[in-house]
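Researcher: Next sequence.
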Amino acid sequence: MERVVVTGIGLVTPNGVGTDASFQSLTRGESGAGKITLFEAGPEYATRIAAEVKNFDPTQFMEKKKLKEVSRFIPFAMAATKMALEQADLNLTEAERDRAGVFLGVGLGGLENLERCTLTLKDRGPGKVSPYFIPSLIANMAAGQVSIAYGFRGPSLAHTSACSSSAHAIGEALRWMQRGDSDVMIAGGAEATITPIGIGGFSAMFALSRRNDEPERASRPWDRGRDGFLCGEGAGTLILETLTRAKKRGARIFAELVGYAATSDAYHITKPAPNGESGARAMRLALRDARLAPEQIDYINAHGTSTPAGDTEEARAITDVFGAHATDGKLWVSSTKSMMGHLLGAAGAVEAAVCIKAMETGLVPPTINLDDPEPDLKLDLVPQKARERRVRHALSNSFGFGGTNATLIFSAFDG
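Model: Next structure:
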């Protein structure tokens, strides 16, 4: 089987537009949260805070005239992909474009245009609905727009599996390449759900934090004061190449994608399975796929959403899989959702990129707002401040509604 490596990374997050800007903000322990500005979130909203992408100019990444065709998640995807491609400098031939695919996971798609056009239909009738309505909101148009813009003629797919969407997209891209069907894959995800219906819907489930007076302190994974997650938005793209192609062209290799697994809880639409058993199984299967022992993992970027049940069950799963390696502090675990919020369908890709940057820089970003950890929690969660460490192997977890789980493992590249 072909080995698969990462040769480009692009990030658009609440902590910065750009990979280095985002990662440096995370290692400084900065929160990207604040009051919602994308719409008027009045007192009728139980949650009025989120982690928005700031200072984003979509015209830097798409033609201005095309912006009327898209919802907000698509320019995010285009921006992350453009930055990743510029870093990778692929120089594809026409023949190679037939074997270059785009897998971008999206959880919910264009909610803001769905709301806007629904109101137009109600108030002005069907004749006033935009002809761009459908293509602006369907989840696969992030991959579709990227494919069109750059001429990638391999498979173009949207993986939609809630908060695991982009992790699944990356993992399935790995499988596609391992069996020899593609030489290059653009893999990642995008999301933009900070809209009235998005915030209203998650609030109705009591899923969101209501710490409206302290947005920067609202996302607090594993803290006893946590009361729900914080909606984030953005995109992450990885450029995956076969090792053969990357070495032949002398590409800079940031990491190797060595392990992937997907499981299902088959338990509940929103609650994790007891003891995180299916999440644990995903981690074990990914370790087997990577041919790594548990004690070889140096860092886990946890799913860690700041929900009462989810954090507890993930901690149990990690303890179950890694045993003394985790409870003796040799394994470091952190949740960057404490700073970025939960990017939903984009979370897996963004957090995979964080793992790669931790390997590159030797800096592990912290879990901020961890002031009063859960009792009996024996994991080293890198509280409050980043730490230096040589990270050789890093694991990223993504768990979603519907009981869907994905685990990715990246290793520092070794010839």
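Model: Residues 4-248 form a domain with the Peroxisomal Thiolase; Chain A, domain 1 fold (CATH 3.40.47.10). The radius of gyration is 20 Å.
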